[in-house]
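tokens incoming
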């Protein structure tokens, strides 16, 4: 007497999805690892350290800039906002090629009283 099998009785074929699933898991995992490592260290990174409202017409901002390639000049746009989140001051700070890590203080002239300041964006420029 042979052992009972549902496959023989109902004509079911064995599934072949497991090798495909394992292959997709390996490829997806490798891509996820690459994407995480690639985007975890951007070419240019700026961090706000502090800001201080000096007067109704001026705010100072202290920030740091890190760049992977120190031979590239970088420009950062710094902005000051009022209570209603309107931009009341904006300045572009240029950093020539040099050190990979820079920490600096920049003054932003404003047209009215500001309540905060920040870094809008930083990008590599050509000279």
């Amino acid at each position: 007497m042979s052992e009972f099998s549902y496959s023989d009785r109902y004509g079911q074929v064995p599934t072949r999805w497991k090798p495909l699933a394992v292959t997709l898991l390996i490829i997806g995992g490798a891509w996820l690892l690459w994407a995480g490592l690639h985007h975890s260290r951007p070419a240019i990174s700026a961090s706000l350290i502090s800001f201080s409202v000096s007067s109704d017409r001026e705010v100072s901002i202290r920030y740091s800039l890190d760049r992977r390639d120190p031979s590239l000049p970088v420009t950062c746009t710094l902005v000051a906002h009022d209570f209603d989140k309107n931009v009341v001051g904006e300045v572009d700070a240029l950093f020539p090629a040099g050190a990979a890590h820079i920490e600096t203080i920049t003054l932003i002239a404003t047209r009215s009283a500001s309540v905060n300041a920040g870094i809008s964006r930083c990008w590599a420029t050509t000279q």
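note: Strands lie at 44-55, 58-67, 74-81, 87-95, 101-109, 116-124.
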